[in-house]
Amino acid sequence: MPSVQRVHWAKLKVAAVCATALLILGTLCVLLTGGTLLEPKSTIYLYMPDAVGVVAGAPVRVDGIGVGKVELVELSGSKEPDRVVKVTMTIERDRLRSIPEDSTAEASADTLVGDKFVDIDSGRSAAHIKPGGEILYKATPDVMKRLDVTQFEDRLRAMDALVSEIEQGKTPLGQFVQGDDMYRSLLHRVAELDSAIRTAARTTGSVGQALYGEAMYSRIADPLHELDLSLARIQSGQGPMGQLLRDNAQYSQLRDSMADLHKTVADLRGNAFLKSEQQYTDWNRSVQKMIRMVDDFASSAPMQTAASYDEFAGLARELESGLKDFRENPRKFLRLKMF
């Protein structure tokens, strides 16, 4: 028989394995439920005219965000057409604040053949739904139920005619699929583009010379080189501009000249003649007096007669002739008288 110590050790191993298994199982349950297993839940209800594929365990979404799941789908026992099926939903309690009271719900699916889920469209009310509240059902038209068989046949015939035209090449799409004219045209345009690029790349053409020749490069590089040399000469102190920038003497001389000019203008502005109104008035009075004297002399009787003008003119000519003779032969006017 095994000893008591071995029995206790075996029981301890079994207990440890069971505890580890329970811990793993609990972790899997939490992960499979999205970490919401232990969170408090609330129940809300939805009444529908039929189940339309909604089953227990189906997701419940608010504006596309999962907030819970369908707990139970059963008959409500109501005689009203829109309240035949009762859907019980469990929602995370903290998510109820994101569901206004005027929200509506419907059965939706991600694809035509996908599983159904309850899609809640949030309303605009400031108050949110309470635990045990009811979501209003929003009826949506079923496309397959509302589709008329005659209309469906007409659409099939139109699609068949379109496919036939494409197969026969009667439409531009059919010509593109069945024929090769558009392909050849596209290929021809691609060849023309390739030829134009090759022509531009040749150095014998005008475009190629402009791209690969040195003429355009020289036109751009030579002025830049001259500008660089000019700036280098100025920086090294060559030329008048360079000497002006490098030599402080010329700058000081120019500054002194500007200071003298400023002082001269200031002295002239502070002159008594420019500042005194009395001197200006006296000077203006003297000028007016000289103008009147000239006007009186011009309006006098000797200046008004032609004889007086002729006499003055003759006197001026004689004086001019005498000065000319004196300049040419001054000995003629120098006479020595002996006693």
Can you describe what's shown?
With about 350 residues, the chain is of the alpha/beta class. It has 5 domains: about 1-40; about 40-140; about 150-180; about 215-245, no CATH class; about 250-300, no CATH class. About 55% of the residues lie in helices and about 15% in strands. The chain has 13 helices and 7 strands. Strands 1-4-3-2-6-5-7 form a 7-stranded mixed β-barrel. Strand 2 and strand 3 form a beta hairpin. Helix 3 (about 150-170) packs across helix 4 (about 170-180), helix 7 crosses helix 8 and helix 8 (about 240-245) packs across helix 9 (about 250-270). The protein starts with a helix and ends in an 11-residue tail after the last helix.
SS element count, helices: 13
In percent, how much strand structure appears in the residues?
5-15%
Q: Give the N-to-C terminal Cα separation.
A: 196 Å
Q: Major β-sheet, in short? A: 7 strands, mixed, barrel
Order of helices and strands: HEEEEEEEHHHHHHHHHHHH
Principal-axis shape equals elongated
- The gyration radius over C-alpha positions equals 59 Å
Oligomeric description of these chains? single chain
Mean pLDDT: 76
Beta strands, count: 7
Low-confidence stretches: none
Topology:
Blueprint: H1 4-32, E1 41-48, E2 59-62, E3 65-75, E4 85-92, E5 104-109, E6 116-121, E7 134-137, H2 143-146, H3 149-168, H4 172-178, H5 181-201, H6 206-212, H7 215-236, H8 239-246, H9 248-269, H10 272-275, H11 277-298, H12 301-304, H13 306-328
Parallel strand pairs: 1-7, 2-6, 5-7
Antiparallel strand pairs: 1-4, 2-3, 3-4, 5-6
